[in-house]
Amino acid sequence: MTTQLISFILLAGILLGRWYAKRDRQKHILLMYLFVGADILLVLFLAAFRDVLGKVKVEMSPLLYFHIAIALAVVVGYFFAITYGRRLDKGDENSRKKLIFVDRIVIPLRIAVSVTSLFFIGG
Ligand code: HEM
After folding, report:
1. What's the number of domains the chain is made of?
2. Predicted TM-score (pTM) of this structure
3. CA-wise closest residue to 33 among 73, 86, 108, 94
4. 28 Cβ closer than 6 Å to some ligand 1 atom
């Protein structure tokens, strides 16, 4: 329950940061670093220590594999988004369409991560 809640709070922060992209560049950058950074830490922490914490009560179902796979794909996508975001910030307009492309994949996948996490409440 706690991890699902944190996951949704971080998602809300990321969506807020994204909302600022066209409104306040500095706020956008700050919020993305903050929430995307925390999100990466959460995913890596859960991937590495979930078993250690003895939280694996559910069997490794296909849905759990799917959930973990998209969560890791999102982390990879974040690195591309940060790379293109930094380049765009330095004035490389070519990075804008690449960032938008990554954004269109990463954000829906990130929403799917939070939604599928609900199936593992108590697990
Ligand atoms: C997961 C992380 C990120 C996502 C999903 C994301 C997404 C977006 C989106 C959708 C836009 C609007 C592009 C447009 O329609 O023109 C944007 C703009 C921008 N982003 Fe990000 N971004 C992320 C992280 C970052 C980071 C880390 C930086 C810089 C260090 C950054 C710098 C910028 C800049 C400079 C703009 C252009 C703002 C403007 O037009 O004034 N982004 N971002």
Report:
1. 1
2. 0.90
3. 86
4. yes
